Amino acid sequence: QVQLVESGGGLVQAGGSLRLSCAASGSFDSINSMGWYRQAPGKQRELVAVIARGHSTNYADSVKDRFTISRDNAGNTVSLQMNSLKAEDTAVYYCHLDSNWPGESWGQGTQVTVSS
Q1: Residue closest to 3 by CA, chosen among 72, 92, 95, 70
Q2: How far apart are CA 19 and CA 17, in angstroms?
Protein backbone atom coordinates (compact mmCIF):
# COMPACT_ATOMS: atom_id res chain seq x y z
CA GLN A 1 0.00 0.00 0.00
CA VAL A 2 1.24 3.46 -0.93
CA GLN A 3 0.87 6.45 1.37
CA LEU A 4 1.13 9.95 -0.08
CA VAL A 5 1.24 12.63 2.60
CA GLU A 6 0.65 16.16 1.33
CA SER A 7 1.43 19.39 3.11
CA GLY A 8 1.64 23.10 2.44
CA GLY A 9 -1.83 24.13 1.33
CA GLY A 10 -3.62 27.12 2.76
CA LEU A 11 -4.99 30.60 2.16
CA VAL A 12 -2.94 33.23 0.35
CA GLN A 13 -3.62 36.56 -1.32
CA ALA A 14 -3.40 36.91 -5.07
CA GLY A 15 0.19 37.42 -6.13
CA GLY A 16 1.50 35.42 -3.21
CA SER A 17 3.31 32.08 -3.03
CA LEU A 18 2.79 28.66 -1.55
CA ARG A 19 4.86 25.49 -1.59
CA LEU A 20 3.24 22.07 -1.61
CA SER A 21 5.11 18.91 -0.68
CA CYS A 22 4.20 15.24 -0.97
CA ALA A 23 6.12 12.38 0.63
CA ALA A 24 5.62 8.84 -0.64
CA SER A 25 6.04 5.81 1.58
CA GLY A 26 4.88 2.21 1.77
CA SER A 27 5.16 -0.51 -0.85
CA PHE A 28 5.79 0.45 -4.44
CA ASP A 29 8.26 -0.36 -7.17
CA SER A 30 10.06 1.90 -9.65
CA ILE A 31 8.45 5.31 -9.65
CA ASN A 32 7.74 6.41 -13.22
CA SER A 33 6.51 9.88 -12.33
CA MET A 34 5.18 12.03 -9.54
CA GLY A 35 3.00 15.03 -9.99
CA TRP A 36 0.21 17.31 -8.93
CA TYR A 37 -3.35 17.55 -10.14
CA ARG A 38 -6.06 19.93 -9.01
CA GLN A 39 -9.82 20.04 -8.92
CA ALA A 40 -11.83 23.22 -8.55
CA PRO A 41 -15.51 23.15 -7.54
CA GLY A 42 -17.68 22.04 -10.43
CA LYS A 43 -14.69 21.21 -12.62
CA GLN A 44 -12.86 18.06 -13.61
CA ARG A 45 -9.53 17.13 -12.09
CA GLU A 46 -6.70 18.46 -14.24
CA LEU A 47 -2.96 18.02 -14.49
CA VAL A 48 -0.92 20.82 -12.96
CA ALA A 49 2.64 19.51 -13.25
CA VAL A 50 4.46 16.21 -13.47
CA ILE A 51 8.10 15.16 -13.11
CA ALA A 52 9.26 11.89 -14.61
CA ARG A 53 11.98 9.45 -13.58
CA GLY A 54 14.62 11.31 -15.59
CA HIS A 55 13.47 14.59 -14.07
CA SER A 56 11.81 15.80 -17.24
CA THR A 57 8.85 18.01 -16.44
CA ASN A 58 5.53 18.94 -17.95
CA TYR A 59 3.22 21.77 -16.93
CA ALA A 60 -0.30 22.88 -17.68
CA ASP A 61 -0.21 25.98 -19.87
CA SER A 62 -2.06 27.93 -17.19
CA VAL A 63 0.78 27.51 -14.66
CA LYS A 64 3.88 27.66 -16.86
CA ASP A 65 6.41 30.26 -15.69
CA ARG A 66 4.64 30.50 -12.31
CA PHE A 67 4.89 26.98 -10.85
CA THR A 68 7.96 24.78 -10.48
CA ILE A 69 7.90 21.06 -9.71
CA SER A 70 10.88 19.25 -8.20
CA ARG A 71 11.83 15.94 -6.59
CA ASP A 72 14.36 15.24 -3.87
CA ASN A 73 17.46 13.15 -4.52
CA ALA A 74 15.90 10.05 -3.00
CA GLY A 75 13.03 10.54 -5.41
CA ASN A 76 10.24 9.92 -2.94
CA THR A 77 9.26 13.51 -2.25
CA VAL A 78 7.82 15.90 -4.80
CA SER A 79 7.32 19.62 -4.25
CA LEU A 80 5.41 22.28 -6.13
CA GLN A 81 6.51 25.88 -5.73
CA MET A 82 3.63 28.12 -6.70
CA ASN A 83 4.33 31.80 -7.32
CA SER A 84 2.20 34.68 -8.57
CA LEU A 85 -0.92 32.85 -7.47
CA LYS A 86 -4.23 33.81 -9.00
CA ALA A 87 -7.81 33.35 -7.82
CA GLU A 88 -8.30 30.76 -10.56
CA ASP A 89 -5.59 28.60 -8.93
CA THR A 90 -8.02 27.94 -6.07
CA ALA A 91 -8.64 24.20 -5.91
CA VAL A 92 -7.93 21.01 -4.04
CA TYR A 93 -4.47 19.86 -5.07
CA TYR A 94 -3.77 16.12 -5.23
CA CYS A 95 -0.42 14.40 -5.25
CA HIS A 96 -0.11 11.61 -7.82
CA LEU A 97 2.38 8.78 -8.10
CA ASP A 98 2.74 6.39 -11.01
CA SER A 99 4.84 3.30 -10.36
CA ASN A 100 5.44 -0.04 -12.04
CA TRP A 101 3.63 -1.54 -9.05
CA PRO A 102 0.97 -0.99 -7.84
CA GLY A 103 0.32 1.61 -10.56
CA GLU A 104 -1.43 4.90 -9.82
CA SER A 105 -1.77 6.27 -6.30
CA TRP A 106 -3.39 9.47 -5.06
CA GLY A 107 -3.03 11.61 -2.00
CA GLN A 108 -5.97 12.85 0.06
CA GLY A 109 -5.72 16.36 -1.34
CA THR A 110 -4.81 19.72 0.15
CA GLN A 111 -6.85 22.90 -0.23
CA VAL A 112 -5.30 25.95 -1.85
CA THR A 113 -7.37 29.13 -1.66
CA VAL A 114 -6.26 32.34 -3.34
CA SER A 115 -8.15 35.46 -2.35
CA SER A 116 -8.45 38.26 -4.87
Answers
A1: 95
A2: 7
The partner residues of 105 in beta bridges, in order of sequence, read 97
Asked if 14 and 116 touch (Cβ cutoff 8 Å), the reply is: yes
How does pLDDT run across 13-28, given as a tens digit for each residue?
A: 999 999 999 999 999 9
Rounded distance between C-alpha atoms, residue 48 and residue 76, angstroms:
19
**For residue 44, what are the contacts with CB-CB under 8 A and spacing of at least 6?**
none
pLDDT in tens, 16-70: 999 999 999 999 988 999 999 999 999 999 999 999 988 899 999 999 999 999 9
Report phi then psi at 42, rounded to 5: 75, 5
Taking the CA atoms of residue 114, residue 23, residue 63 and residue 12 in that order, the dihedral angle to the nearest 10 degrees is 20
Give the contacts of 73 (CB within 8 A, at least 6 positions apart). none
CA distance 114 to 107: 21
Is the separation of the CB atoms in 30 and 100 below 8 Å? yes
